[in-house]
Design brief:
With 388 residues, the chain is an alpha/beta fold. Helix content is 36%, strand content 17%. It is built from 14 helices and 15 strands. Strands 2-1-3-4-6-5 form a 6-stranded mixed sheet, sandwiched between helices. A 5-stranded parallel sheet has the order 8-9-12-7-13. Helix 1 links the parallel strand 1 and strand 2. The longest helix has 15 residues, at 337-351. The protein is globular and about 70 Å long.
């Protein structure tokens, strides 16, 4: 089963699209001659040029080819359209994408690849991030615990979901819990489960999230916010691969992989006594560190495009990002990282007029930051300046 089959005949971007998707580990196949009689390959997407669709005789010929290829959906790309447009027919089964002359080939490739890749992450360009994902895919093949550290909003949960999707546990549940968002007494019951009547309001038993993730992956998001007593209980559960529900008197074995995240310096947390060093070593078998968005500016456009696709209800509503809008996005420092960028792209979808997002639809928060207090006699940071 392929994610995409690309008919490269009369399709100038065809081979480059094959290379782009393959570079991001998307299962793709190129075909030149679709007239030969072969076993139906099956694919999520069949992608072909408008010129080839015309040779096939229009919609009826395209539908016939899609059936032959076992394609669920078809993307027809018009590389000589007068301007950008995107429409659908047959209930979204066939999508027509028109690319105007003002759209550069690199952005056209990104636009198409983002539409069809289905990997759950952006088509990143930064070499360090690509290396990080490649390493994460290798780690996913084992069953070791992974600790993902990085700034708030930098994609730690996306990395965790990617590791799960690439692992042998991909068919199991991915269960995530934010340890900072739940009071400690509730967090214990949610993690370990409880028996009926074990506390006021426990009208029925609950298996808990650790057992709910049995056979799959459990993500403990912002685990540095967990209390020390609960850390001790979690350490015992990880060591023994078993949990004891609240109000219970027997251990229940579990088969679960633990991933954890934090935006704090965990070495400092351990030294300060706020986090158990033995638990950290149990969780930090393989460390992964995500990068702030300001350190990977070449990924701002791919991530922005991915967010646009994610937040529209219909494929025909996906807008184009104008050069002026992209320039504004790439000039910002993004202290809130991907989460801040997501907010800006959602606003842009609301503020845009027509099918293109221009600079006037990009509304970025300007958070006032305190200025340093300069005392008399303190040298200025400007070159050649003297103290006030």
């Amino acid at each position: 089963m392929y994610r995409a089959i690309i008919q490269i005949e009369n399709f100038r971007l065809g081979q480059a699209l094959v290379d782009t998707l393959s570079d991001h580990a998307v299962s793709v196949r190129r075909v030149c001659d679709t007239s030969c009689d072969e076993k139906r390959p099956n694919t999520d997407f069949l992608i072909l040029s408008q010129e080839h669709a015309d040779v096939l005789g229009g919609q009826s010929g395209v539908v016939e080819l899609a059936r032959k290829m076992g394609a669920r959906s078809v993307l027809v790309v018009n590389e000589t359209a007068s301007g950008f447009c995107i429409t659908s027919e047959l209930g979204g089964k066939i999508v027509h994408l028109g690319l105007g002359d003002d759209i550069c080939p690199q952005y056209a490739l990104l636009f198409i690849a983002t539409l069809v890749h289905g990997s759950g992450r952006a088509m990143v360009r930064n070499p360090h991030v690509k290396t990080l994902f490649a390493m994460a895919a290798r780690v996913a093949n084992s069953d070791v615990s992974v600790f993902i550290n990085g700034p708030t909003g930098s994609g730690k949960e996306i990395m965790a979901r990617y590791i799960h999707s690439q692992s042998k546990r991909a068919g199991g549940e991915f269960v995530a819990i934010n340890c900072a968002a739940i009071p400690d007494n509730m967090l214990e019951a949610m993690l370990f489960g409880h028996e009926k009547g074990s506390f006021t309001g426990a009208s029925k038993a609950n298996v808990g999230l650790i057992r709910a993730a049995d056979g799959g992956t459990l993500l403990l998001d912002e685990i540095s916010e967990m209390s020390l007593p609960l850390q001790a209980k979690l350490l015992r559960a990880i060591q023994e691969l078993a949990v004891t529900p609240l109000g219970g008197n027997r251990q229940i074995e579990v088969d679960v992989r633990i991933l954890a995240t934090s935006n704090r310096d965990m070495s400092a947390e351990c030294l300060a006594g706020r986090f158990r060093e033995d638990l950290f070593y149990r969780l930090n078998v393989f460390p992964v560190t995500t990068m702030p968005l300001s350190a990977r500016r070449d990924d701002i456009l791919p991530i922005a495009q991915e967010l646009l696709v994610r937040h529209v209800k219909d494929v025909a509503e996906i807008p184009l990002l104008a050069h002026c809008a992209v320039a504004l996005l790439e000039a910002h420092d993004w202290p809130g990282n991907i989460r801040e960028l997501e907010n800006v792209m959602q606003r842009a979808l609301v503020l845009k007029t027509g099918t293109t997002i221009t600079a006037d639809a990009i509304m970025i928060d300007q958070i006032a930051r305190p200025s340093p207090i300069i005392q008399a006699g303190t040298p200025s940071a400007w070159p050649g300046a003297h103290g006030l």
